[in-house]
Amino acid sequence: MNYARPTAAYAHVKLFLKTGLAEGRWAPGSLMPSEAELVEQFSVSRMTVSRAVRELQAEGLVERVQGVGTFAAQPYRASSTLTIRDLHTEISERGHRHRADVQLVQAETVAAGGLAQRLGLPVGSDVFHTLIVHYEDDVALLCEDRYVNPSRAPDYLSVDFTKTTPTNYLLAVAPLWEAQYSIEAGTPTVQEAQLLGIEPADPCLIIVRRTESQGTPITVARLVHPGSRYTIEGSFKP
Amino acid sequence: MNYARPTAAYAHVKLFLKTGLAEGRWAPGSLMPSEAELVEQFSVSRMTVSRAVRELQAEGLVERVQGVGTFAAQPYRASSTLTIRDLHTEISERGHRHRADVQLVQAETVAAGGLAQRLGLPVGSDVFHTLIVHYEDDVALLCEDRYVNPSRAPDYLSVDFTKTTPTNYLLAVAPLWEAQYSIEAGTPTVQEAQLLGIEPADPCLIIVRRTESQGTPITVARLVHPGSRYTIEGSFKP
DNA sequence: CAGTGGTCTAGACCACTCG
DNA sequence: GAGTGGTCTAGACCACTGT
């Protein structure tokens, strides 16, 4: 049976603080009620109050300093949850067909410069390189140029990338990624334009992503999406 | 400093589960140890185990079903923290100078169509409209075309936007945003190209953002950044 | 020193799912 | 009914910051 609003006690406390913050009841940086005060006010145990405030802290709405108190956070940043998904899954969920056109799968010798450093490899060692064009119902959606650290994915070259995307395979081999990315608008290279079937001057969304797993660099990828065909969407809540 | 010592008990449990997931010890979707088992294994109380698993759940690493158990999450999405910041702050932190060129500040009558609906306003009512070009050290970095719901920011038109950015002002008036955004690559309008001092064919990063505060639509903005001058960067951790 | 948050315990009751 | 997670309590000890 559902009562009207039988929310958990910790949720009550959390809601109280959250709406207070939304109404500007505690200015950014100012001191908020202590746990002891909230215990008194809501007649709950300290563990309950603690959980409420800890979750607000995790959401970035308050800052806590041991021995000092809890403070309203500066609301100058709103954190968002940007979901990076496997392209195959994404296309399938739209009810469309995904096809990968594998242009290149090979081992190369890594030359000096940024790439060796970014993959944590000594100059002259092997690196795996793939170049794949992804289609959604025969429309080119992405040109994926990727380098992979062989030590963490030794079987990478033998994967059938018409059936599994590199993202998917690498997630399975090395879960729990950390990644840095940059997103910018630019023009494709001549080769990319040709592969995507667009003009070299057409604007593209270019994502460069570098991922690590447990401190080891895994892969560096340059993802080029035709601007007219691809959009990143998302939302964020405080 | 020292990161050696065995941290909190709940952190031990959390680390155990997290590394196990990273090593593929529990396949995605498979059943993980119950709270009772972890209580036994680590000789801690159930509250402690509960906290560890709950935090993993918040991080999206596990899924829990009451009455059933805890399951390793499908690693098909990695959540990222994309930080939307006030442009003035961002530029200042780079040690540069921010200047806003206010092209337009006026009230308009909202016509039928998407805008009225997206701002939750009846057709024919007033809406505030600003068009501002932002410069970093005299280089045009952003053309900001923004519509604002007057009911939540009645003083919007009297703000001096050469001193305060709209983002900044709206954050103060209506904190705790929720927003939906889309990011794409495209070309600017003729007017935008002129204001930014670029060619109409130059690729731009175009962000369309709609924000709400406590369920009320606040503002809809179209942010056009020259692709050659602006990049979104970020990182995500599992 | 008094006050704050950080953590922990050993129980408890509940709602839920499944066989 | 057995097992699961969801929540809660009334204490407790600790580490830290301020005066």
From TrEMBL, chains A, B:
Pfam family, one: GntR
UniProt-listed InterPro entries: Bact_HTH_transcr_reg, Chorismate_lyase_/UTRA_dom_sf, Tscrpt_reg_HTH_GntR, UTRA, WH-like_DNA-bd_sf, WH_DNA-bd_sf
Top-level taxon in the UniProt lineage: Bacteria
Gene3D superfamilies: Chorismate lyase-like, Winged helix-like DNA-binding domain superfamily/Winged helix DNA-binding domain
Domain HTH gntR-type: start-end pairs: 7-75
GO MF annotations, alphabetized: DNA binding; DNA-binding transcription factor activity
Keywords, comma-separated and alphabetical: DNA-binding, Transcription, Transcription regulation
Annotated coiled-coil segments of the chain: none
Classification via SMART domains: HTH_GNTR, UTRA
PANTHER family for the chain: MANNOSYL-D-GLYCERATE TRANSPORT/METABOLISM SYSTEM REPRESSOR MNGR-RELATED, TRANSCRIPTIONAL REGULATOR PHNF-RELATED
Name used for this protein in its record: GntR family histidine utilization transcriptional repressor
Source organism: Pigmentiphaga litoralis
Lineage: Bacteria, Pseudomonadati, Pseudomonadota, Betaproteobacteria, Burkholderiales
